[in-house]
Amino acid sequence: MDKVVATALEAVADVPEGASLAVGGFGLSGVPNVLVQALFERGVSGLSVVSNNCGAMESGLAVLLSAGRIARVTGSYVGANKEFARQYLAGELEVEMIPQGTLAERLRAGGAGIPAFYTPAGVGTQVADGGLPWRYDGSGGVALASPPKEVREFDGTEYVLERGIRTDFALVRAAKGDRHGNLVFSRSTRNFNPLAAMAGRVTIAEVEELVEPGGIDPDAVHLPGIFVQRVVALTPEQAAAKMIEKRTVSG
């Protein structure tokens, strides 16, 4: 089955208002910028996004965030995104912050058909007990707080129950992909991308290099095409457009 779509705009054409999205990437690494930009151009709003962070340096999800297109974020890292913090504290944005490893496993579990799992991460904190501010009222008060979660003891250790995550769509970026949707990620871009791809009911991948079926050694596939519904081949210019978050020099 040839899953290649001609353009990014065509690939995201059926993403509706209020859709939920799992988005790959970490900082500026492995972010599906072309697909995010296509969503921005379409004007879709009211989005609920699940991603490690919500964009950085006016790239990635920060494009949608700054335009007021995101209603809810499930993530684990705010970082230096000042607009994210402003919207959250002003009561304009609902935010569910969870431990990073828990976020990764919730995405993987959802994609694997596992409805929930127990983890020790968060036991004895507001992650398990509830009360984390999901939404502020704009005046310093909490308008919506997280509910308590089930805690059980196994072999003398307490664990909190976490739900698997499934989203309407997933947007990811891969270094290489074939027409069947098999994907390969390069180095640190193999962060949240495979997990986000698993969690999406419809997964759209932008690939830096498109090859024909058989062009990827089966042992080299990081994510099998069963998890991917659409593939967008990037132009050489799009594939090469990679920002650096923090430049360092060595003496």
From TrEMBL:
Gene Ontology molecular function, alphabetical: transferase activity
Pfam family, one: CoA_trans
SMART domains attached to this UniProt entry: CoA_trans
Keywords attached to this entry: Transferase
InterPro entries: 3-oxoacid_CoA-transf_A, CoA_trans_fam_I, NagB/RpiA_transferase-like
Protein name: CoA transferase subunit A
The species this protein was found in: Streptomyces mirabilis
